[in-house]
């Protein structure tokens, strides 16, 4: 299994994979299409897991804003992630997340946020965002579901504000 950057010729396969992984729902596939077309897209952070020339997993990390009064900080959001249902629980999701976080750090981002299952993401170092100085109002989710991971040492305590997901997430 190989983790690599997504290429334009992968788009249809990535669409199909997300459709299947999210229970025959197009929402996440359409979200990916909107993010790709937006200023928040970072090509090197759209990753695919490839096995026998087939795409078996996909992860997207893109830009968002943290707003604290007049101050705005560019941060990252991880969404969505999908693994072929027939191949889940074999480490593909973990490999995608670890590579995504490694590349995000390399690109010198300080924080990455997500909305996700509290039994999965803490193993990668994600912590409840509201336990620090972060807030999320756009989505009404419980505290343990809104998570943050520090990529640059000190940012968790130094940076604060409300996370604003970009427009692509809502239309
Ligand atoms: C979430 C997902 C990407 C994980 O990928 P994966 O390749 O199965 O993950 P890994 O093999 O690295 O890790 C497996 C672990 O994740 C856990 N896990 C998988 N999906 C989970 C979920 N929705 N909630 C909680 N835990 C989950 C498994 O129970 C397993 O836990 P264990 O190691 O304690 O046994 C995959 O299950 C998936 O595509 N789900 C459908 C789409 C989705 O819900 N995406 C997340 C929201 S954006």
From TrEMBL:
Q: What are the TM regions of this chain, as residue ranges? A: none
Instruction: Quote the protein name from its UniProt record.
Output: N-acetyltransferase
According to the lineage, what is the superkingdom? Answer: Bacteria
Residue ranges annotated for the N-acetyltransferase domain, each copy included: 1-152
Checking InterPro entries in the record gives: Acetyltransferase_Eis, Acyl_CoA_acyltransferase, GNAT_dom
């Amino acid at each position: 299994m190989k983790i690599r950057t997504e290429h334009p010729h992968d788009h249809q396969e990535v669409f199909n994979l997300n459709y299947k992984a999210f229970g025959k729902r197009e929402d996440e596939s359409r979200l990916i299409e909107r993010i790709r077309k937006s200023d928040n897209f970072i090509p090197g952070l759209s990753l695919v897991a490839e096995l026998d020339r087939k795409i078996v997993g996909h992860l997207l990390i893109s830009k968002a804003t943290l707003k604290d009064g007049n101050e705005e900080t560019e941060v990252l959001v991880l969404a969505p992630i999908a693994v072929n249902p027939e191949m889940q629980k074999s480490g593909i999701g973990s490999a995608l997340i670890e590579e995504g976080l490694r590349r995000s750090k390399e690109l010198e981002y300080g924080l990455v946020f997500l909305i996700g299952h509290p039994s999965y993401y803490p193993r990668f170092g994600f912590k409840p965002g509201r336990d620090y100085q972060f807030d999320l109002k756009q989505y009404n989710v419980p505290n343990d579901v809104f998570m943050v991971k520090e990529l640059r040492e000190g940012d968790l305590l130094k940076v604060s504000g409300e996370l604003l997901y970009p427009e692509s997430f809502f239309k």
